[in-house]
Amino acid sequence: MCEQDTSDPPTAASSPASPKASSLSFPPLHETTTVERGSFCTARCTCGWSGHARRSRDLARTDAATHATAHPATRTAKS
């Protein structure tokens, strides 16, 4: 089932108490999910990518999986 769009994608918070965290550099993590808006469902990723609005949830999930295979360090959230 698709999630309702309630907020923007989560962002990483930096902690001033952890100096090691600021010196390390990691590539952005790709986590895909689907979001429902009315009768349409859209695939989204934490990197900012979003797929086409689809009436078929299955096609939106396919869009998310296609995006996931394009990025080797991608994880797909269950939706």
H/E element string? EHEEHE
Shape: elongated
Counted beta strands? 4
Percent strand equals 15-25%
Helical run tally = 2
Mean pLDDT: 74
- Helix/strand-derived class? alpha/beta
Q: End-to-end span in angstroms?
A: 6 Å
Q: Which blocks of ≥5 consecutive residues have pLDDT under 50?
A: none
User: How many whole angstroms does the radius of gyration measure?
Assistant: 15 Å
Question: What does the model show?
Answer:
- With 79 residues, this protein is α/β, with parallel strands linked by helices.
- The chain has helices at 19-23, 57-70; strands at residues 3-4, 30-37, 40-45, 74-76.
- The longest helix has 14 residues, at 57-70.
- It starts with a strand and ends with a strand.
- 18% of the residues are buried.
- The model has no long low-confidence stretch (mean pLDDT 74).
